């Protein structure tokens, strides 16, 4: 028995059409009489200007008119998703399009849209790296306030958008909110987040002028705050928070307060680089304070993460953690961490000591991931690290009692990496397996690594 595609019910056909690019989806209307109006009921509408062959003024007008026609003839009772990627350019700026954009968003709201994704950037990628090319305020488009009063909206993704006066948002059903490189007043961003009482996932990224943020959300489970390099105060009250991804300069008196959520299990921390370009604005971070001050600041931060079991820490160089005062001020603050991931440059004696101190602060580690990166700081690399220069390793309890598995990534086997690995292999009493993912130019092989271990029960394998 054969089944013809026309025998399928409309809901299945609409689902199939929703996976097609807009051009191909529109072409299905000429297949036969039954398919003529199916496209007009497709629950997902997505338009990406990059797929329309150019961003000149003529092409841009055609692109906007196609969207207008599609929404005008839309016959569905509700809209599942509306996605728009628009790249402005020197000849056709965002400020020329408010009538189009207002019409698109108003229609989406009238159709009880559940998901909106807007990306309104400039075609030249240099805007992100050169402040001389940053668009003027009068060339931007401010999102209308009524989009923040859409009761049916459950997912809102804004990239490279500008918030105007948003009034009092009414997004009681919104569960996912991503604000990526969003501009606007600090009050508008804070007010938007505060009034989304049903949020479960929140991401705030690339908002460099945002200095203070207070998050008090009962249902929030996942939070990401990245590339907000002027952040001086972050206060989080989220009892159901499960995952936190936070990028900041932890050593420069950050006012960080986390109302200890019982469910928090996964934390990823990233130390800022010394210099950053964000949206054309150049930031040079202040010089690190004294080691004593840095130890106290990190201790205060660690106290907020006492329930964390999965911790991921990325840094341009782990020399930043070579602070012996940490062992005095932060004993056992991270004693619940079971799985630790470290990513950064470990190419000097000081960096090796920094990694060792971090391991000493976490006595319950069962699995460890070390990802080695190149030195991206302006500090000169210490190429004199050798076995003849002994490093005063601190006492690392996890090596004696809990560590069972190690994964190495981008491992090449230079002197610093081998010294650290040798110390771990010779002192890890319960280690079962070391899994190695090699870098581009490796200096050793598995046989060389096997010679470093004391116990024959440790397996050394390729990842």
From TrEMBL:
Domain F-box, chain residue ranges per copy = 5-38
> What range(s) does the At1g61320/AtMIF1 LRR domain occupy?
87-435
Q: Which domain of life is it from?
A: Eukaryota
The protein's name in its UniProt record: F-box domain-containing protein
| Species whose genome carries this gene | Rhynchospora breviuscula
């Amino acid at each position: 028995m054969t089944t013809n595609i026309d025998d399928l019910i409309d809901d299945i056909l609409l689902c199939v059409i929703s996976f097609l690019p807009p051009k191909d989806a529109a072409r299905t209307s000429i297949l036969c009489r039954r398919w003529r109006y199916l496209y007009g009921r497709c629950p997902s509408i997505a338009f990406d200007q990059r797929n329309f062959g150019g961003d000149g003024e003529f092409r841009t007008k055609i692109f906007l008119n196609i969207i207008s026609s599609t929404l005008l003839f839309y016959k569905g009772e509700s809209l599942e998703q509306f996605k728009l990627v628009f790249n402005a350019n020197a000849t056709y700026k965002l400020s020329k399009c408010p009538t189009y954009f207002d019409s698109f968003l108003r229609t989406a709201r009238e159709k009880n849209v559940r998901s909106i994704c807007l990306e309104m950037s400039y075609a030249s990628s240099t805007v992100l790296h050169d402040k001389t090319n940053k668009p003027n305020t009068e060339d931007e488009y401010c999102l209308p306030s009524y989009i923040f009063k859409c009761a049916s909206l459950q997912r809102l993704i804004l990239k490279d958008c500008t918030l105007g006066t948003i009034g009092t948002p009414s997004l009681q059903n919104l569960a996912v909110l991503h604000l990526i490189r969003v501009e606007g007043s600090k009050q508008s961003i804070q007010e938007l987040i505060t009034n989304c009482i049903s949020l479960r996932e929140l991401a705030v990224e690339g908002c460099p002028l945002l200095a203070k943020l207070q998050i008090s959300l009962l249902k929030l489970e996942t939070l990401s705050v990245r590339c907000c390099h002027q952040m001086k105060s972050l206060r989080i009250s989220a009892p159901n928070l499960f995952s936190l991804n936070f990028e900041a300069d932890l050593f420069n008196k950050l006012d960080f307060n986390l109302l200890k959520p019982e469910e928090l299990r996964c934390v990823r921390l990233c130390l800022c680089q010394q210099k950053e370009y964000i949206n054309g604005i150049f930031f040079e971070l202040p010089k690190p304070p004294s080691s004593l001050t840095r130890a106290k600041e990190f201790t205060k931060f660690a106290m907020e993460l006492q329930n964390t079991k999965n911790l991921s820490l990325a840094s341009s160089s782990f020399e930043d953690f070579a602070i012996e005062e940490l062992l005095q001020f932060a004993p056992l603050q991270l004693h619940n961490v079971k799985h630790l991931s470290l990513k950064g440059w470990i190419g000097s004696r000081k960096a090796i000591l920094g990694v060792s101190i971090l391991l000493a602060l976490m006595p319950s580690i069962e699995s460890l991931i070390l990802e080695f990166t190149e030195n991206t700081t302006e500090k000169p690399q210490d190429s004199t690290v050798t076995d003849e220069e002994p490093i005063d390793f601190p006492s690392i309890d996890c090596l004696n009692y809990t560590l069972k598995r190690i994964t190495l990534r981008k491992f090449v086997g230079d002197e610093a990496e081998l010294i650290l690995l040798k110390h771990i292999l010779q002192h890890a009493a319960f280690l079962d397996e070391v899994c190695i993912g090699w870098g581009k130019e490796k200096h050793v092989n598995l046989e060389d690594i096997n010679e470093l271990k004391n116990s024959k029960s440790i397996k050394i394998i390729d990842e």
